[in-house]
Amino acid sequence: MVKIIVNGKDAILGRMGSYVSKELLKGNSIDIINSEEVVISGKKEYMIEKIKRKRRMGQGSSLKGPRYIRREDMLLKRMIRGMLPWDRQKGRDAYKRLRCYIGDNNLTEEQKKKTKNFEHHLPLNHYKLKEVVKGLI
Predict the structure, then answer these.
(1) How far apart are CA 90 and CA 18, in angstroms?
(2) Contact residues for 48 (Cβ-Cβ < 8 A; gap 6+)
(3) Which residues have C-beta within 8 Å of that of residue 26, sequence separation ≥ 6?
(4) What are phi and psi of 6, to 5 degrees?
(5) CA distance linking residue 31 with residue 87, whole number of Å
């Protein structure tokens, strides 16, 4: 089992998420730093409305409904969970090996050099995950 540190700064969510989910299913442990800086393509209003709609589904009882957290790191972890086979034990085990952090988690310079960075051209319509969380409040 290998521990991989992924830098989420300016990484596109779908591309980073597919890489992370594949590595988790291989048995590796993943730490994502700077999770608030992850880039999502598309319209921000659509994503905010989609999360609000799912959050409204659970109103009425505190024991029912999906849980959509307002913290950036937990929201990213929930989005990556959707890329894993959650209905099987291997997907649940892979999810336990995922850690997301806001900021750099006090990494040393040597660890920062070993991080996996994603270099993509940013799409025209894009926004960061922290902007989505601000829109939810």
Answers:
(1) 16
(2) 132, 135, 136
(3) none
(4) -110, 130
(5) 23
Per the prediction, the chain carries an average pLDDT of 88
For the entire predicted model, the pTM comes to 0.85
- The predicted pLDDT at position 67 comes to 60
How many Cβ atoms are within 10 Å of 12's Cβ, its own excluded? Answer: 18
Domains of the chain: 3-136 (3.90.1180.10)
| Torsion over CA: 116, 117, 123, 128 (sign) | positive
How much is the pLDDT for 19? 96
Instruction: Indicate the length of the chain as a whole number.
Output: 137
Q: Do the beta carbons of residue 26 and residue 19 sit within 8 Å?
A: no
pLDDT digits (tens, 9 = 90+) for 39-93: 999 888 888 888 888 777 766 666 665 566 778 899 899 999 999 999 999 999 9
- The span from the CA of 13 to the CA of 34, in Å, is 12
> How would you classify the pairing of strands 39-41 and 29-33?
unpaired
Q: Residue 48 has what pLDDT?
A: 85
Q: Is 23 helix (H, G, I), strand (E, B) or coil?
A: helix
